[in-house]
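Thread title: Can someone regenerate the structure for this chain?

I was given the following input by a collaborator and told the matching structure tokens would be attached. They weren't. Posting the sequence so someone can regenerate them.
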Amino acid sequence: MAAQEPKMILPTGKSKSNASAFTLVELMLVMAMLLIVVAVAFPSLKNFFRGRNLDAEAHRLLALTRYGQSRAVSEGVPMVLWIDAENGHYGLQTQTGYSDTDAKAVQFTIDDQLTLEVSANRTGPATRSGVWTQTTAPGTGPLIRFLPDGSIGESSPENIFISQDVSSVILVRQATNRLRYEIASSQTAQR
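Best answer:
Regenerated them for you:
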């Protein structure tokens, strides 16, 4: 007689163990603990998402500067990035006088909780005397001018501050070589 080989199956039918499910009280205790954890973590998550909004706006403005510079070189005409700090708008278009219409012109509106300040000076943070505050329309006011050779116009602002509150500020500034804009480190962005 041949020996019986072990079979790889699970037993079926009634189990002899008395395993029971969670009670309602145990489930309520777990839910209460989860609620406490969420309540503790919520303020830091709120700041995280608020900071993401500020960071996203700074990166969008920086991307628009690079797009404007690229368009100026590829199309061979000056491009202007205009900023309406008072109303929270900015956009990019061909400099007035080079074409009748610009089909690729873009305009953005910043979030209601964010503010823009444009500083003309390079030596330090924005001061009231060095900040454009008048209402501007597309093509007027503070303009970043990108020339067809890829350089930035001399009258272009040095610093653009995007802030959410007093403690949350991001600085988009001209690089030291004056060939592009960059996001400054958090230590430099303090006003």
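DSSP finds one helix and eight strands in the chain.
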